[in-house]
Design brief:
about 230 residues; alpha+beta; seven-stranded antiparallel sheet; 7 helices; transmembrane helix; membrane
């Protein structure tokens, strides 16, 4: 049977607001199954990206991939076909492929970009960073001791993706990582209002939270200042 003939057999008398949920169990069940499968998949592919975006995108992926096969399954039996709300079906398809699909593709592109930026930053630990400098508006400090730099890089390797919630930075500055081969990598950084002991670094559009990073850097600079004062005496 041609698709157009199958569509003619749908129930076009009901308004689109009446989904007849009890008659579309196969469609909804398949979407729920695929959503449950795809939500963890996003976490496996993009482990360091905003988890809220990953959960939402995984659920929407299940809807996009399951809605059409579920509909065809529902329409495979002539008796069920006559009970499917045609208007609600068209509205659901338009929402899935006209709204959800573009958003899922957009989120996938952004998540891929953020994950690459974060992976790049974490890989810098292997390039032999020999110095870390901090600069902002006439302020310039550098960490050059190998043990201190190693501790900072461990904080960086253990950092987590940061999701802001209507907060700005108390202090914004630039962090530069100088590698042993002479290359350097410069990033924006800051100390968020609600995380005064932590440090946030932007490898690009993504944000990484170094827990106790601000406290670590501050303590190192204070200890160096105290040593300098003692030597001056």
């Amino acid at each position: 049977m041609r698709l157009i003939d199958a569509l003619k057999q749908l129930d076009w008398t009901k308004p689109a607001s009446d989904p007849s949920t009890n008659l579309t169990l196969r469609q909804h069940g398949l979407m729920a199954l695929l959503a449950a499968l795809f939500a963890p998949t996003w976490f496996l592919v993009f482990p360091d990206v905003n988890p809220v975006i990953l959960v939402w995108s995984g659920l929407m992926s299940g809807v996009v991939l399951g809605i059409l096969p579920g509909l065809l399954w529902q329409m495979s039996d002539p008796e069920r076909r006559a009970k499917v709300n045609g208007r609600h079906t068209i509205m659901t398809l338009l929402m899935a492929y006209g709204c959800f699909l573009p958003v899922v593709m957009f989120n996938a592109a952004n998540a891929s970009r953020d994950q690459k930026e974060i992976d790049h930053m974490k890989s810098l630990r292997q390039c032999g960073v020999r110095a870390v400098t901090f600069a902002a508006c006439g302020y310039h400090q550098a960490l050059t001791d190998s043990a201190v730099v190693g501790s900072f890089m461990r904080l960086l390797a253990d950092s987590d993706p940061f999701v802001r919630s209507h907060e700005n930075d108390n202090l914004s500055f630039t962090v530069t990582l100088v590698c042993a081969n002479g290359q350097f990598h410069e990033y924006r950084a800051g100390i968020p209002n609600r995380h005064p002991r932590d440090l946030v670094i932007h490898p690009g559009e993504a944000e990484m939270l170094l827990r106790l990073g601000a406290e670590f850097v501050d303590s190192e600079f204070k200890s160096r200042s105290q040593c300098a004062n003692c030597c001056a005496r």
